[in-house]
Input
Amino acid sequence: MQFHAAYCSYLERNNTKMKALYQAIRDAIHEGQILYGEKLPSTRELAAAYHISRGVVNQVYDMLTSQGYLLSQHGKGTFVAYQIDLSNEEFIAEPAVRHLSGWGQRIRQLGQPATRDMVTPGDALKQSGAVIDFSRYQPDLSKFPYEEWNNRLYAEVRNREPDLNAASASVSSLGDPKLREAIAAYLRRMRGIQADAEHIAVTAGSMQAIALLTQLLAGPGDLVVTESPSYVGIAQAIQAAGAGLVEANLDGQGLVPQDWQARLLFVTPSRQFPTGEMLSLERRQTLLEWAHRQDAMIVEDDYDSEFRYRGMHVEPLKTLDKEGRVIYLGSFTKTLPVEVRLGYVVLPPALADTFRKAQALYEPRPVNLLEQRALAAFMASGQYERHLRRMNRFYSRKFLVLIQLLNQELASWFEWVDNDAGLHVFGWWQGDASAFADFRRAARSEGVLYSEVSSSAAPSTKYGIYLSFAHLSESELQEGVMRLKKAVTTGFKSC
Amino acid sequence: MQFHAAYCSYLERNNTKMKALYQAIRDAIHEGQILYGEKLPSTRELAAAYHISRGVVNQVYDMLTSQGYLLSQHGKGTFVAYQIDLSNEEFIAEPAVRHLSGWGQRIRQLGQPATRDMVTPGDALKQSGAVIDFSRYQPDLSKFPYEEWNNRLYAEVRNREPDLNAASASVSSLGDPKLREAIAAYLRRMRGIQADAEHIAVTAGSMQAIALLTQLLAGPGDLVVTESPSYVGIAQAIQAAGAGLVEANLDGQGLVPQDWQARLLFVTPSRQFPTGEMLSLERRQTLLEWAHRQDAMIVEDDYDSEFRYRGMHVEPLKTLDKEGRVIYLGSFTKTLPVEVRLGYVVLPPALADTFRKAQALYEPRPVNLLEQRALAAFMASGQYERHLRRMNRFYSRKFLVLIQLLNQELASWFEWVDNDAGLHVFGWWQGDASAFADFRRAARSEGVLYSEVSSSAAPSTKYGIYLSFAHLSESELQEGVMRLKKAVTTGFKSC
Output
């Protein structure tokens, strides 16, 4: 809950639980941590989480409602009714920024930047030195062929005059032609996708593609569907574009298709992010039929299909697309050094030129051209695929160790999603909200970090955690699971 | 004129001049080279340019008007009345992309990507081998201290594990903290600007800043002022944001202030782009008072103030700004190798967090982090300023050679703007439109390229050219000016 830290801090300052809760929620609304229209936990959930009576929570909600902060809708729940005033004191000091465009106002309301490796705030984290950090998506770079990579990079540096200068001036924002050819060849061979290099755009990471595509295809009045839970960046892109967000439920076979009146759908068919569920072939067909009927577009985010440990590689949804409705996203951030921020998007031909213009609006020249050309050479030499095969074997061992440990030690607390691929493992919490809050605090105190999601689908909020394992050693995996187990079993019962 | 090449091509196919002109204009409208609402040349201008009678041009305009392509407004001129149909054949093939957001539709209509070194299309260029190219903004890299720079870059590559990985995961999209400190120190010392590193954002070139700031501060219904002529990227950013563009006139002392009902103003006070005019102190004060009255923001684009050959460095407008209304843009693209795409923006504190979120929407991590850190070290060691001083002396010689040649050889054809700084020289064409068209063709045929602007301020369209000289040797400058002279004096009189 967004006001948890504030609640504890108010309690520590000798307030009553009621007063602490009142002040914590009010602060969270004022500071924009809970936004206008957002649903609050039920009084039952909140009472359980904080070990206070429902009567106290009811009183707090009533006070906030009478002051205009909250609004109760019968049978639906309690919602934030207070909109942050853009003309408040922060702005009196600098009057010039009172005027933001509609887009600017939406941007101002956005939460923290979206990265898939968002670290849970570590305020209650005790053992900062020896933390086991499952919350960071980071490749194990100890096996990366730096020598070969640096040779490619240095070769470009040495050649930069005049070749790289001329290229930089003439290459479009879509990216280095050789890299786009190499990606097209990779997709044909490894993913069964037939795409021309001229319809592939190199991006500075997949978020650039998500934001630009949303902005191009949806605006105020349009609806965009995303999975619940899903990558937080997608919701931010939809919010920034001013479109409405529709959450699609998951049921173990990936998202459950419906007849949405939407313009655009984001989906992770190969391995749902973050739960890891795989979308069935039947549902893939249903989605394509839906898109045809609605005249809608589908963005397929294939964020970590490079790694598969058991079973067959699944063909992307894009391979079934006959109408140019599927836009395919891939990324190199799981396979190359972290600072090489490169991704790509396979565009339907009719959208390629408009996408290029959108990208060029923010940067007319390709970014990271040095790295783009190093990667083109790295791929053309076969070194990239050799690296993938080596990492696949290497991650496979870690994956099997982790999944066995989790099923052995933590099976009664989490339902671990059955999984053959990727760089993280996902589990649904089997207890209630209150116990989850206890677990969260205890895990911090044990010095173990993980990523957390909640899904507010009916009948009640579900909580889940996922553990990124690529960068951890086998003994760290072991130690991390033991700490998680200690956290669930001992638990913290109060602030 | 956008239909010139087509006109020549129709003529070559043995059409009459009337038929060729009719078909060329119709094609240009169909292909979106002249857009809905755009003004066509007057019949007088067109007749002069093509050496045909005004009666023929009148007949062509009448035909196109009767067919709905054009509309005459008494006393105002002739305008395009035909809107390209978005549901034409290109889209029937791929129905899915019929639905673009409002932003997407505006992006689709944008012209070519904005780069300051836009090359005039070389279709009629004969001597491709030995072209003298004044149209490219490119530093002279023969003097760049590559060894020192590469050492910095390599040092980062060697240090990348684990330092760079950790930094990449934790540095915000605003950029490397050390680079932002180095920029703040540089601005204090060299430009008199007091800015905290926390209010400086590193961008991937100045276009990123222009596009994001426009989008944040102006939307549909807002007006944005820009100089006429100015950098084409500004007009594209305004068009993309859906705001209205107001053109401000220049009169030799920079832009002429008016009481615009606008939200945002783009200005190049140190050296107007591209004319090179310097904005007087009085006008700077007037602009700040205007911004106060209108509660507006001003973006100061200080695109090439690193280079000044005579006289004093001018303090930026930003140094007079007491209210946090001026946003200052700087760039490294004139001083570092072309593929290092780095610029920066000094933000008013109240806007810094919103700008960071806007930047992070498209890319949550800093781009070019390797280059950012290399540059931070390069600046901290003093090497960057030594490089600037050396280049200043070096460019100074080229500048003096060029300005003397132009005043000697081309003074009766162009009015060369008096100038002490920068990497290009600007001149206003002293003849009429027809003679300018002749000059343009003759210059291509002589194998000399330059950049061209037109300003449609009253009483008639003015034409100007600018010559970027940084990358050319003194003998190339000499040869280039001689070719320009040959082009104006011989001229081409027909296709």
